[in-house]
Amino acid sequence: xxxxxxxxxxxxxxxxxxxxxxxxxxxxxxxxxxxxxxxxxxxxxxxxxxxxxxxxxxxxxxxxxxxxxxxxxxxxxxxxxxxxxxxxxxxxxxxxxxxxxxxxxxxxxxxxxxxxxxxxxxxxxxxxxxxxxxxxxxxxxxxxxxxxxxxxxxxxxxxxxxxxxxxxxxxxxxxxxxxxxxxxxxxxxxxxxxxxxxxxxxxxxxxxxxxxxxxxxxxxxxxxxxxxxxxxxxxxxxxxxxxxxxxxxxxxxxxxxxxxxxxxxxxxxxxxxxxxxxxxxxxxxxxxxxxxxxxxxxxxxxxxxxxxxxxxxxxxxxxxxxxxxxxxxxxxxxxxxxxxxxxxxxxxxxxxxxxxxxxxxxxxxxxxxxxxxxxxxxxxxxxxxxxxxxxxxxxxxxxxxxxx
Length: 404
Ligand code: PMT
Hints:
Strand order of the largest sheet: 12-11-8-13-16-17-18-19
Shape: globular
CATH architecture of the largest domain: 3-Layer(aba) Sandwich
Radius of gyration: 23 Å
Mean pLDDT: 92
Largest sheet: 8 strands, mixed
Low-confidence stretches: 1-5
Helix content: 25-40%
Bound molecules: ligand PMT
Distance between the termini: 29 Å
């Protein structure tokens, strides 16, 4: 793939048995329109949702379902098909196929191909939110990512089962876009990047919490951009309705303490970016039962939360540390002091307030580091993410020993 776009690629699209199977038809269409050669392999269950004939009509190629089909094997046998593929994309990838792949099973044609191919394998998970959140699925997900499988999504949102949450398949257009994106080794290839995003929620009682207005947009944009540039990215996200950027491993957390545990559990880190609005305080003793309304005033006893980014900056070996400063006054002065106090290499300062910084599609930033500063005029957060990472690479080039 290096040095060329995915156009004209030979892509094997695997379709497993979920309601999102119908969306794979659009994916195949998009890939073919972009000039790719596509072959479709379906699981038996997938054929209950969409017929092989539909994919055959769209791809212009015979569709394979079974492994032990003498007639099909006399054409392009499964080993030849595995060799033919320059990449394998399974969309939708159900909890079942993720489990079978994680276990290394070869009990149908699609799983057999995944074992037999040398091509990169990418999955677009799609399942009910409970199935997605189940520890078994999460363990399978982690195992597959560890083995080099790339994940496209899942998104969060309304699901076919009527529930709302994470587990929805990424839209086929977005999957196609990710696959067709330039695949040359990016300028962050080989780097392990960890990004925190969104706000944390600190429980008051079982139904109430302390929170802030962070949407996650800035952090998700940074994760997407780092991944697009070739880094291996882990996104540790507080509650957010945003879709997981392509190729990014996402860990969902709720409280600052959970975010800290998730960050601490990551061993290899070249770059840490703290874009999350982490609550500085948590409720000392959240009530076990819902607090009852009474005429009297209510006081909450708050304890300081651990400082996640300051702890990362103390690590050995130390990653390059980028943080943010959300300020309502004396921006440059407060941000510079914060950078020093927390041991950050680079701080991105933003003025926050009504309609500024938090939960907006764009922002204005002032970047400060030991030997310089750069003002970034108002721009979409995606554009700012590019400029922040450009600045990081520039600092690394100018001061190669600034951190690891
Ligand atoms: O998510 P969006 O809606 O796109 O909004 C983006 C943003 C406004 C949230 C983002 O641009 C931003 O400013 N993020 C940091 C917000 C913040 O909490 O700033 P702070 O000045 O309180 O914290 C300074 C730094 O310490 C931050 O990098 C923060 O992640 C980190 N921190 C803070 C407290 C804590 N306990 N642990 C931390 O790691």
